[in-house]
Amino acid sequence: MSSTRKIGLAVAQLGPIHLADSRESVVQRLLAMMREAKARQADFVVFPELALTTFFPRYWMEEAEAVDRFFEKTMPGPATQPLFDEAKKLGIGFYLGYAELTPKGRRFNTAILVDPSANIVGKYRKVHLPGHSDHKPDAPFQHLEKKFFEVGNLGFGVWDTTGVKMGMCICNDRRWPETYRVMALQSAEIVVLGYNTPSHNIHWDEPAHLRTSTHLISLQANAYQNGLWVAAAAKCGREDGFHMIGNSVIVAPTGEIVARTLTEADEVIATVADLGIGELFRQHVFNFAKHRRPEHYGLITERTGAGEPLPRPVGDD
Ligand code: CDT
């Protein structure tokens, strides 16, 4: 179960970023991990969602204040240019999540794919925005992604970069099978993503251990069912007292975890991803062209929420 098509793949997990931390100090941490990733033979390194600041949707504030403090007006900008310079010097590609303010004043939760020559080759804007837009003064913290961001308008893209077909998504997207299937139907071989997952769910009394197990099961099941590698980078630990899960992982197309962080601090994990493993699954059990039956999947795009059962033929033919 091995081929000659391989890519050095690293995930750079970030420990907490506190409100008082500057972007410049965060970029220094990202640079240190980028160098470590390269030293460990990585061709590509995955950074987290909203990787330049604290997870600010936990705080109630007006949009203008959020834009002022937490959004990037250009990419690269003065604080992030060193990431691009170092990537080019090292010859390593990267995924970076950040809050994007567009020239027209629109706000998105965004990630970019940067190639080893430091060109931005792909952009993704988060589609599945969790949380709420109203103030919940009784909750221990907020989850205001629906207030601060618009639903992404670019779809789930796949790019040919670093010798591989790579797709990307962001955090909550990883829990939805449609995310991966749309990319797999564009022949994605690797899906990369970053996340900020609070260990406490403010919406219902979810047992804390499920936050990690549902994270892992989503990645593992979707890697297997689509015959692709998944590399997921957390921002984690206690940001000013608000805890988020770690467990950054690299998952093979077998559904198995091949690398996993041990800490809730800055930590690099790396593997050499054999792309032939995914090809085997996509040639056999998940040979889409041979086995998929889209004529029976219509409800997936026709309905958003669950509705009544459809009338079915009785099958007496
Ligand atoms: N950042 C992000 O998307 N976090 C969500 C938390 C969902 S609970 C409101 C996640 O799926 O991890």
Structural class, by secondary structure, is alpha/beta
List the uncertain runs.
Answer: none
In CATH, the architecture is 4-Layer Sandwich
Name of the CATH class: Alpha Beta
- Give the ordered list of helices and strands: EHEHHEEEHEEHEHEEEEEEHHH
Mean pLDDT: 97
Give the helix tally: 9
Fraction of residues in H or I helices = 25-40%
Strands of the largest sheet, in order across it?
5-4-3-2-1-14
| Estimated radius of gyration | 20 Å
CATH fold annotation: Nitrilase/N-carbamoyl-D-aminoacid amidohydrolase
Number of domains: 1
What overall geometry do the principal axes of the alpha carbons give? globular
- The N- to C-terminal Cα distance equals 44 Å
CATH superfamily: Carbon-nitrogen hydrolase
Commentary on this structure:
- The protein has helices at residues 23-39, 63-70, 81-90, 145-148, 177-184, 208-226, 275-283, 288-291, 299-302; strands at 6-13, 44-46, 93-101, 107-114, 120-125, 158-161, 164-170, 190-195, 229-234, 237-239, 242-244, 249-251, 257-260, 267-274.
- It is globular, with a radius of gyration of 20 Å.
- A hairpin with a 5-residue loop joins strand 12 and strand 13 (257-260).
- It is built from nine helices and 14 strands.
- The model has no long low-confidence stretch (mean pLDDT 97).
- The longest helix is centred in the C-terminal third of the chain and has 19 residues, at 208-226.
- The chain has one domain (6-302): 4-Layer Sandwich (Nitrilase/N-carbamoyl-D-aminoacid amidohydrolase), CATH 3.60.110.10.
- It has 317 residues and is an alpha/beta fold.
- 4-methylsulfanyl-2-ureido-butyric acid binds at residues 49, 130-131, 143, 171-172, 175, 195-197, 201.
